[in-house]
Amino acid sequence: MLSRTLEPEVMDTASEAVDYDGMDHSSVNRLFVDDFLAVLGPLPTTETLQVFDAGTGTAQIPLELIRRDIRAQITASDLAEQMLIVARENVRRANRADAIRLVRSDCKQLPDATGTYDAVMSNSIVHHIPEPRAVLAELWRILKPDGLLFIRDLMRPDDTTTVERFVRTYAGDANTHQQQMFRDSLHAALTIDEVRAMLCQVGIPADGVSPTSDRHWTISVRKRPQ
């Protein structure tokens, strides 16, 4: 089994933001939103769903979600200002500033009140955090009782051979920098057992996480009312 090799917590250079936004995440993002909505279930027709997106990057997933014509207000958070610069332009071009509020905040210590959101989602933030327990605890804290926590991230492969196969398969058409970012992310990712241990430590049901592709795990769990 590969040991975890950390990568920078914040991708905050202009080149990283542009290269990240330029990678083709469309199919992965569509699947994420499909799965999120399937678990979320029927939506209220008269209420606006309050959603928090942790580590939004360039806001690709909030934009994909809002394209589904759901009644939602999305607070999209990232710590990297360069990512948010690109995100603001993406939201502006889509003319969806009415539904997506971009904020710069640290998901290890959020300003949001306890029990604020109907749903908390995140795609690929966990592997960036050296010690992700604080992020998991914060995302659980800001979730309303009976709300949905939906987090997906990369799963660390067993060996470098598999890492390189994934890079060829899923980033083979990307440029050298984009391929290296993906490679670094695979090395920084967590295993299922590591995620389960962290969930137990912060009071989230450990059976809420499962492998959902050859390279991803997903946390999908409702917060039981106290």
Q: According to CATH, what is the topology?
A: Rossmann fold
Distance between the termini: 39 Å
CATH class: Alpha Beta
Rg is 17 Å
Uncertain spans: none
Helical coverage, percent range:
25-40%
Number of helices: 8
Please summarize the sheet with the most strands: 7 strands, mixed
Per DSSP, what share of the residues sits in E-state strands of 2 or more residues? 15-25%
Q: What's the rounded overall pLDDT mean? A: 93
Question: Would you tell me the structural class of the helices and strands?
Answer: alpha/beta
How many structural domains in the coordinates? 1
Oligomeric organization of the protein chains: single chain
Give the CA-based shape: globular
Number of strands: 7
Elements, N to C (H/E): HHEHEHEEHEHHHEE
CATH architecture call? 3-Layer(aba) Sandwich
Strand order of the largest sheet: 3-2-1-4-5-7-6
Say which CATH homologous superfamily is assigned.
Answer: Vaccinia Virus protein VP39
Notable traits:
single chain, 226 residues, alpha/beta, Rossmann fold, seven-stranded mixed β-sheet, 7 strands, 40% helix, 21% strand
Write a brief caption for the model.
With 226 residues, this protein is α/β, with parallel strands linked by helices.
Account of the 3D structure:
It contains 8 helices and 7 strands. The chain is of the alpha/beta class. Strands 3-2-1-4-5-7-6 form a 7-stranded mixed β-sheet, sandwiched between helices. Strand 2, helix 4 and strand 3 form a beta-alpha-beta unit. The model has no long low-confidence stretch (mean pLDDT 93).
